């Protein structure tokens, strides 16, 4: 009897673009892909953080380079993708949060969040997909969404709306890009301990709410997202597209 073999989780020979890759979840995703053998291009706005992140990966023996990238500038980002691509893997981790009660939301805050989380993500995903189609290559496009793309949250109406929209266009693009062998998925983490979540974890009421909702009884760490990223980027998930991989400790199981 022939024994089936697990498809490879390795990414040797692959080129991966990680937008928002200079810190937090994005840097964790970049490190995961590099550890799996990919050549990683980190994109972000903060030049100093970008250089530090790229240097850290290179010093550890991984293949990495960087590009200053602002996904809210969709024309410039599209030109960069066309010039630097094609990319076998995209991880779009660029994101912004402006939390407030819905009745206190300003148009400035709404526009700032949606320009990056939705508009920027949409056109970046489209640009990478378009580049792959041009050379008839398969690929895996991963948008970092959130559990808040599946549920509602306290003081998070704008953020939730942007992430629900990401889940929507991811499914639509998966249908459209499927005949070209390009997979499009999201990873949807719960609250992850990063520099951007420091203020949330300083609020005892928010921490209590978070700990009550996460069934596994602990706050997420960056490492919790890394394995899921490699899975979706690799041949191990060759038949996975148009879906969301929840990394939420059971938050959305209710």
Tell me what the structure shows.
The chain is α/β, with parallel strands linked by helices and 254 residues long. It has a single domain (15-193, 220-246), classed as NAD(P)-binding Rossmann-like Domain (Rossmann fold, 3-Layer(aba) Sandwich). It has 8 helices and 7 strands, in the order E-H-E-H-E-H-E-H-E-H-E-H-H-H-E. Strands 3-2-1-4-5-6-7 form a 7-stranded parallel sheet, sandwiched between helices.
Give short descriptive properties of this protein.
254 residues; alpha/beta; Rossmann fold; seven-stranded parallel β-sheet; 8 helices; 7 strands; 15% strand; globular
Whole-number count of domains: 1
- Give the strand order, joined by hyphens, for the main sheet: 3-2-1-4-5-6-7
Distance between the terminal alpha carbons, to the nearest Å? Answer: 42 Å
- Give the fraction of residues assigned to helices: 40-55%
Tell me the layout of helices and strands.
Elements: E1 15-19, H1 24-35, E2 39-44, H2 47-59, E3 64-68, H3 74-84, E4 89-92, H4 107-134, E5 139-144, H5 157-177, E6 182-189, H6 198-201, H7 204-213, H8 223-233, E7 244-247
Parallel strand pairs: 1-2, 1-4, 2-3, 4-5, 5-6, 6-7
What's the short story on this structure?
With 254 residues, this protein is α/β, with parallel strands linked by helices.
